[in-house]
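Recap from last week: sequence in, structure out.
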Amino acid sequence: MCGKAIADIFSSASSIGSTVANVASVAAPIIQAGAQLQAGDAALDVAKQESDLIQRQKDLDLQALDREKQRTLARQKTGFAKSGVRRTGSVLEVMKQTAQEAEEEALNIQFGAAAGSQARLFEGKQAQKAGRVGAVGTLLTGFGGR
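Predicted structure tokens:
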């Protein structure tokens, strides 16, 4: 009788072990798929934050450029005034050229920021899509043999 009881205990333990293994084999693909989804979503969140930072830096760069343009134009005006030159003809052209170059630089800053921001968002969206596709693939692979 004692031998039968021990055999029953081992049989029950074996059955429990088998059940735990089955549960683990079902849970593993689900957990892995969830992790892939979270990783993709996190990559998109980071990309959005980086895109925002690029836009903020653009604003700071434009402000700094505008301050520098104003200082340069003021120095030019002061220099021309000290030398007794009127703001006409070539003097006016020099000042116009300075303002035009600053405007071109501002456009370059805006274009660079827009391109960088869009590139980061695109990369983030691609990472999110890759996470979703990976999650589906994991689930299909994990449950494909069942």
